[in-house]
C-alpha cells in the first residue's frame, strides 16, 4: 500500500502512474516517480523530481511563492520555441516537508496537455480516492420544477461519486425535451468529460443551466452517454414516490 503522509493540512503520497506534461508538443516533464500533494482536500497536484523535468526549458523569473506549510519555492518561466509561460514552474529546493525537496510543481493551466500513462487528463489531477459507480436501476424517478413534471422514468442510471449526492441520469425519451433549450455553457470534469447544458422553461420562467448531459463521456463514465441529469439541489426529485430532501452542496 502506498505510504500516506500528512504535514499539517498538506497530505503527500508517492504516485504510481507515469505522468507527462506537454507544451506545444514538447514534453516538459515525464516521470513514474511523481509525488501527489493535496494542497487542497479535493484532489492532488503532481510534483516532479527535478531530474524528470526538462530544466533547460526553465528560466528563473526572480519571483518566489511562499506557503506556510510547503515553504518557499523559486518561480520559473518555461520557454518552448518562441513562446513563454510565465511563472509556470515552482521549484522547491528546500521545504519543511522533506518529500518536496528538489521537486518541481508545474502549473496545470500553463500546460497544453497532461497525461496519466497514455490517457489525456483534463481540469486537474484525478484523486485516487474519488470513485464513480454508475448503476442501472429500476427506481421510479420523477422530476418536477415549480410543481410541473419535467421527467419521469423507471430506467434511470444512478451515478455515485465520492463526496457528492447521487445523481439520477434519465433517458431523453423519458424527459419532456420541449421544455428544454440548449445552453452555451460547457463544463469539464476529469472523471466524466465535457458536459453540455440545457435551460428549462416552465410556465414562462427559465431556469438556466439546470440540466446537463455528457455527449461523449470518458470511458469510465460511458454508461451515462446521452442521458440527462437535473441538479438535485434545484429541482424536486421523487424516488419511488418519496420526495428527496435537497442536498446542500456548492451547487445549491
Keywords for this entry:
single chain, 252 residues, mainly beta, Metal Binding Protein, Guanine Nucleotide Exchange Factor, Chain A, 2 domains, eight-stranded antiparallel beta sheet, seven-stranded antiparallel beta sheet, 23 strands
List the SSEs and their pairings:
Layout: E1 5-7, E2 10-14, E3 19-23, E4 26-31, E5 35-38, E6 45-49, E7 58-67, E8 71-80, E9 83-92, E10 103-106, E11 113-116, E12 119-121, E13 132-136, E14 141-145, E15 148-153, E16 157-161, E17 167-170, E18 180-189, E19 193-202, E20 205-213, E21 228-230, E22 236-239, E23 242-243
Antiparallel strand pairs: 1-2, 2-5, 3-4, 3-11, 5-6, 6-10, 7-8, 8-9, 9-10, 11-12, 13-16, 14-15, 14-22, 16-17, 17-21, 18-19, 19-20, 20-21, 22-23
Task: Describe it.
- With 252 residues, the chain is mainly β.
- The protein has strands at 5-7, 10-14, 19-23, 26-31, 35-38, 45-49, 58-67, 71-80, 83-92, 103-106, 113-116, 119-121, 132-136, 141-145, 148-153, 157-161, 167-170, 180-189, 193-202, 205-213, 228-230, 236-239, 242-243.
- The strands form four sheets. Strands 1-2-5-6-10-9-8-7 form an eight-stranded antiparallel β-sheet, with no helix packed on it.
- The chain starts with a strand and ends in a 9-residue tail after the last strand.
- The mean pLDDT is 94.
